[in-house]
Amino acid sequence: MAAKKPLNIGLVGYGFMGRTHSNGYKRVNDFFDLEYRPVLKAVCGRSAANAQTFADKWGYESIETDWRKLIDRKDIDAIDICTPNNTHAEIAIAAAAAGKMILCEKPLSMDLVEGQTMVEAIEKAGVPNTVWYNYRRVPAVTLAKQLIDEGRLGRVFHYRANFLQDWTISSELPQGGAGLWRLDAAAAGSGVTGDLLAHCIDTALWLNGGISNVSAMTETFIKERKHSETGKVEPVSIDDACAFLCRFENGSLGLFESTRYARGHKALYTFEINGEKASIKWDLHDLHRLEYFDHGDESKLRGWRSIHVTDSDHPYMKHWWVPGLQIGYEHTFVHQVADFLGGLAAGKPTSPTFREALATQAVCDAVLDSAEVGQWQTVVPV
Ligand SMILES: NC(=O)c1ccc[n+]([C@@H]2O[C@H](COP(=O)([O-])OP(=O)(O)OC[C@H]3O[C@@H](n4cnc5c(N)ncnc54)[C@H](O)[C@@H]3O)[C@@H](O)[C@H]2O)c1
């Protein structure tokens, strides 16, 4: 086989997502036959010592402490943005102007208006881009997409999704700074809406099409927290919990809920879709299974079947082990890298692109607006 084309990666941010993406770049060519090979060229973080420790551990060739310098480097092909939400736009727009490919973490932006400026910049530059809504690439979720596209559900009536956590219940937890920037609206944009519901919305738009309008409520249970950087007690302005109803363009009804106050739940992302002919449900805690009910089955055998999505004819699975042996969370990032590299070779975009991720931003904005004014809001078409 011909030597693979190198794709030099410049990673910005070495936290949780910096690790999942690095794992994806390192493993992808061991399992997928691709024209391109990611090269871990440089990692960028504000602390040189921490960046060096990360580089040594994961095998990055060099470090930078300013993302602008990383973008200026001629030996970097792609910028991977793994930093808090309030930095995505500035880094992505500068990377696009420098002609770099961009892989950006979700949510795309702080809000819809900022997201629109990013999409304009990226489309003007014509650079390959993708946003890491990785749950699309859980094989069971990709299988759900295939079953829906094959028409097996028929007309869809209901879409229900939850993303439940319990890690912010203590009023002693500070907001802001490393690890806790998610509680600080200035860094995160919003609370569970942009952090967790954005995943549910992305999957829903992909599986069930556009959302036309929404009616939402949000709550901030702990009203003040100490800021971990300033030490001051400050008001909390993120949404701790959010629930919304919506109408999809295909006529189905949606019900979404997310909270960080569901004691006992760590990352319970679930969805269920009820169609005229069949229903589907999925649960992140059992991510390799897809539950499927087919009304067309012989009545005496009819019931929910639990498909263990590990066969070689299931999405992505022929690249891994043998039927029956399952894979996990980290593989979704390997799959996204594989799809991005495959797209580059084929000259095709990798979904979700910035423009596709903007649609999720439009729904998030409508949800937050609706909660604020207490009325249904129309989702701005993008
Ligand atoms: N796809 C997913 O499932 C998923 C999961 C978690 C987080 N995310 C997203 O990934 C992004 C990062 O989240 P995380 O959980 O990795 O956060 P994290 O706090 O673990 O890591 C953030 C990193 O960014 C660095 N950083 C902050 N400002 C910087 C700057 N100006 N220049 C360089 N580095 C800077 C921090 O030092 C840290 O290394 C967020 O946008 C988040 O919403 C996505």
UniProtKB/TrEMBL annotation:
Keyword Glycoprotein: yes or no? no
Tell me where the signal peptide lies. none
Ranges of residues in domain GFO/IDH/MocA-like oxidoreductase? 143-280
Kindly give the InterPro entries that the UniProt entry links to this protein: Gfo/Idh/MocA-like_OxRdtase_N, Gfo/Idh/MocA_oxidrdct_glycsds, GFO_IDH_MocA-like_dom, NAD(P)-bd_dom_sf
Tell me the SUPFAM superfamilies matching this sequence: Glyceraldehyde-3-phosphate dehydrogenase-like, C-terminal domain, NAD(P)-binding Rossmann-fold domains
Keyword list, A-Z: Oxidoreductase
Residues forming the Gfo/Idh/MocA-like oxidoreductase N-terminal domain are: 7-129
Gene Ontology terms, MF aspect? nucleotide binding; oxidoreductase activity
Is the keyword tRNA-binding assigned to this protein?
no
Question: Which PANTHER family is this protein grouped with?
Answer: BCDNA.GH03377 (PTHR43818)
This one is known as Putative dehydrogenase
Name the species this protein comes from. Answer: Singulisphaera acidiphila (strain ATCC BAA-1392 / DSM 18658 / VKM B-2454 / MOB10)
